[in-house]
Hints:
Elements: H1 10-37, H2 42-45, H3 53-59, H4 61-75, H5 90-95, H6 97-125, H7 131-154, H8 162-170, H9 175-182, H10 185-211
Amino acid sequence: MIGAAGAMDWESAILWFVALVVSTTFHEAAHALFAKLGGDLTAYRAGQVSLNPLPHIQREPFGMVILPLLVLWGSGGTSCLGFASTPIDPVWAYHHPRRAALMSAAGPLANLALAAVALGVLVWVGVPQSGEGTAVHRIAEVFLFLNVLLFVFNLLPLPPLDGAGVVEGLLPALRRAYDLYRRQPMLGFVTFIVASRVAPQLYQPLIRHLRHLY
């Protein structure tokens, strides 16, 4: 998602920023909702079972506002990157590993749902023949690309990504290994490096395939 620096494309920058905020909000709200349904009210009490982006921005202003704006500026408005988080009770997750796994999976699945909606719009619009159709096509394509990337990236099984929570919940025997990994601050950086190399290998072929559908 990182593009070359250049003249700022403000229309593209606004579209990418809005898409990121909306997609991240859906992602975190899904985590919070499934935690609540599973018995952990931590995120619910923090106001995060909501599609209002403000509670999520207030929790992670750097990841949801500052970092995306910096990436947009550096890429000339052609790409966007950010992050957010949902507060989870670790004691609840320890005692209810399957529920915690479902909670972890809920965020990426929310992105998959948004990607499916965007793909449906693209199939419905078809090849745009007018300015209005072109605008709808562009918005839907940004939402498709971004949410497929968020889905793939977050399901990689390395902490602090959601895939680690899914694996840990389904295979509690790996909990100790994941705990040791989390205690090493530098390994978070390793996760980012590995994910930034692996995710495109999964994302790019998937996007090429999806493009054939519309």
